[in-house]
Write a structure and sequence with these properties.
Number of helices: 17
Radius of gyration: 27 Å
Strand order of the largest sheet: 12-11-10-9-13-14-15
Number of domains: 3
Structural class: alpha/beta
CATH architecture of the largest domain: 3-Layer(aba) Sandwich
Number of strands: 15
Helix content: 40-55%
CATH superfamily of the largest domain: HAD superfamily/HAD-like
Largest sheet: 7 strands, mixed
Strand content: 25-35%
Low-confidence stretches: none
């Protein structure tokens, strides 16, 4: 009968441990069935499952590994695995895999406990846990400067993915963290297009509110904007009403507003990294083209669709040119760009904060509500409310150690 053995090694980390153990296994022509290694605060955990053709030599093999571990100052444990146990383990590899990402300024034991209890209640097994962010400093006094991200690789059959996602959204709201729950498939590992809303997503402000303030109708426009973003009134109606209030404003103000529009926290990092990784970047905005064009030039944005204000004799007429870029039009543009770039919808990321972003968020493989209104957060597949726009990179599996090399 074939002998299957699991070696578990733990102790202070040092160079050469894996090499020394596998040298011995190689000497006995062992076949590696599985191997995994992790390091936490200079403490090594190494597991190797193997089999050897000549069982009569396995005793000598284990003795050599035991002597080697003593010399290396680590502990070793041997566990014999039956063929039935091994075959049952192999049979589980066909089960669905998911990735759960916990993101916030700091991660607490209670947050992890609540998250993992939800997984346990649904018989989902955690295969691995890894930290994506850098090592946190104990000396930071401003918590907003901190960021912590933990990624869980999970396996099992899930009867109702939406129900678990809803529970994670509840925990996110109550604990002040973000939790992303995604199927771990080839699309998650091969995203190629990101479509971003502009106002209050890629940038911090709403351009139309800034224009309205200069036209002396700020409060009126802000009230209509807020109502539209909450989904209380139709976007086209609200847009038409707001633009009409801008009639007579000097067109020179457009350049001033564009120059003064602040970028969202983390936006530059996100765009820089995705561009270097070969992503296509699109801005699909219910805002205005005059504010988007400087960003398009600065960051090499591939596609820009937004609204155009009509200007006559150097003044705004209170009308717009062309069709309104509303929620449905954003979804249509997303689909069109994906087709033009030969990209599957599952490979698309969409990011927005308002109700008019919901159609494109639901269409994309990864739809993210960013610092969004309650209605949008409740409807979107994923959300980020704790840190900046570059939090999206953690949802894609990027680690700080890699990101630092790309900046």
């Amino acid at each position: 009968m074939r002998e299957i053995i699991l070696i578990t090694i733990s102790g202070p980390d040092r160079t050469g441990i894996t090499a020394a153990v596998t040298d011995i296994l190689g000497k006995y022509d062992a076949t590696i069935l599985d191997i995994a290694q992790s390091n936490l605060h200079h403490r090594l955990s190494l597991g190797i499952m193997f089999t050897v053709d000549d069982n009569s030599r396995s005793g000598d093999l284990l003795k050599e590994i035991l002597f080697c571990s003593t010399e290396l100052g680590v502990e070793v444990r041997f566990t014999q695995i039956t063929e039935d146990e091994y075959n049952a383990w192999v049979g589980r590899q066909g089960k669905s895999r998911y990735v759960v990402t916990l993101l916030g300024h700091r991660v607490t034991a209670r947050q992890i406990s609540r998250l993992t209890r939800e997984l346990t209640a649904r018989d989902l097994n955690i295969d691995s846990i890894k930290r994506l962010t850098g090592r946190p400093s104990l000396d930071v006094t401003d918590e907003t400067e901190l960021r912590s991200c933990i990624e869980f690789s999970v396996r099992g059959e899930l009867s109702d993915k939406s129900e678990l996602s809803a529970r994670f959204m509840e925990i996110s709201s109550e604990e002040g963290v973000d939790i992303s729950f995604q199927k771990d498939d080839m699309y998650r590992r091969n995203r190629r297009l990101i479509c971003l809303d502009m106002d209050s997503t890629l940038t911090k402000s709403e351009c139309i509110d800034e224009l309205a303030a200069r036209a002396g109708v700020g409060e009126q426009v802000k009230a209509i904007t807020a109502s539209a973003m909450r989904g209380e009134i139709d976007f086209k109606e609200s847009f038409t009403r707001r633009v009409a209030l801008l009639k007579g404003l000097d067109a020179k103000v457009l350049d001033e507003v564009a120059a003064a529009t602040p970028l969202q926290d983390g936006a530059e990092r996100l765009l820089h990294v995705l561009k270097r990784c070969g992503f296509k970047i699109a801005v699909l905005s219910g805002g205005f083209m005059f504010a988007g064009l400087p960003l398009k030039e600065r960051f090499g944005i591939d596609y820009m669709f937004a609204n155009e204000l009509e200007v006559q004799d150097g003044k705004l007429t209170g009308r717009y040119v062309g069709d309104i870029v509303d929620g449905q039009r954003k979804a249509e543009y997303l689909r069109l760009i994906a087709q033009m770039e030969h990209i599957e919808l599952e490979q698309v990321i969409a990011v927005g904060d308002g109700a008019n972003d919901l159609p494109m968020l639901s269409l994309a493989g990864l739809g993210i509500a960013f610092h969004a209104k309650p209605k949008v957060r409740a409807t979107a597949k994923q959300s980020i409310s704790t840190i900046g726009l570059d939090g999206i990179l953690y949802f894609l599996g990027f680690r700080d150690v890699h990101l630092e090399k790309m900046m």
